[in-house]
Amino acid sequence: MQGTEEKALDIAWVREQFPSLKLQANGHPAAFLDGPAGTQVPKKVMDAVQNYFLTANANTYGAFLTSRRNDEMILAARAAMADFFNCDGSEVVFGQNMTTITFALARAIARELKAGDEIVVTTLDHDANVAPWRALEERGMVVRQADIREEDCTLDLEDLKRKISEKTKLVAVGYASNIVGTINPVAEITKLAHAAGALMFVDAVHYAPHGLIDVKGLDCDFLACSPYKFFGPHMGTLFGKREHLQRFKPYKVRPATNVPPECWETGTQVQELIAGIGAAVDYIAELGRHCDPSAKSRREALQAAYLATHAYETSLLTRLIAGLRTIPGMRIFGITDEKRFDERCATLSFRLGDRHPTKIAEFLGDRGIFTWDGNFYALNLSERLGVEQLGGVLRVGLVHYNTADEVDRLLGALREFAAA
């Protein structure tokens, strides 16, 4: 089955798109297993950024060539992200990063809230989907936090249901955990939020590189993600239902337009990176057409791409978990049952006895294997699992440009470290 998946994905073609994958570290080929903190970038994205500077470097809405080209590029990038989200281009907002966007959105929504109104967050989330809402406690809002099931690091849905009430005005949930890879049942949670009359905000930063996003199917009110996590440049993007982008009033300078989505984009954007965002979506679509030449529209091509990459990443994850289980002292966090791998993405964290995660990361890094250690800003989860005071965990993040050979190199190095 794995061979079939690799043929469908054409891993050789994929890796040829990413120039940085040829990097060497201490004489070893670099194995980029650090995707959850930011993926590598295909040449298509690099070319788009360079082409912007060469042909369209101007501010918006000017009466001359480069400005008009810039306007056209931004519209094209919105259209690409609209296909990515499955929404209308007028519902796509660009911003500095997901964290900044969420703080700004929270502040705008708070204009309609009053003391005693409640917001529900979760223990599973990155703090970028917790801190912006907790900041509203300064205005008298009440934040309630849903717990997890520690045995498999999944969201405790019964606890979440208990936390949602007629006082709830917004529910903020991550699509996938950036530590343990758990995928939350966002569509089901959205129904719970809406039944209580609350808005639904989804942090899809970690899900976006691994699964197809469909905001219409989810029916969420807002969804944010970061292109640099799905093979693009360092920026953030937001989907907001048109009625909400019109209803809520962002904080902005007076001369700026009042028309969404532009009114939500504070100041001059990093326009060369917006060009890169459109190219990142087009790379994923190109991958989809490479896997399924019958895909006609960009949205269909995106669907084909994620179908192929999910199967391929799952095969790598299966190989990784099987190998980790043979290492003495290994504690894997999250879902490890192969029958439930559709409930998680290919991000995995572990502890190895009492060895400090930083020491493991340094050992691997010296051998050209790039991983992350710590809490990755998911502080509530790190504390809940009792690992924060121990240095957190070691995280391996697999994406579709990784290989079975890289997984085997990682396992071999870990066995060497464990035996030392």
What does this structure look like?
Helix 9 (215-218) links the parallel strand 10 and strand 11. The chain has helices at residues 2-9, 11-16, 43-55, 65-85, 98-109, 131-134, 157-163, 186-195, 215-218, 242-247, 271-291, 298-324, 357-366, 379-384, 404-419, and strands at residues 24-25, 28-29, 31-32, 92-95, 118-122, 142-146, 148-149, 154-155, 168-174, 199-203, 222-225, 236-240, 330-333, 347-352, 369-370, 372-374, 393-397. Helices cover 41% and strands 15% of the residues. By secondary structure, the protein is α/β, with parallel strands linked by helices. Helix 1 packs antiparallel against helix 12 (298-324), helix 3 (43-55) runs antiparallel to helix 11 and helix 11 (271-291) packs across helix 12. The strands form five sheets. The protein has a seven-stranded mixed beta sheet with strand order 4-12-11-10-9-5-6, with helices on both faces. Strands 13-14-17-16 form a four-stranded antiparallel beta sheet, with helices on one face. The protein has a two-stranded antiparallel ribbon with strand order 1-2.
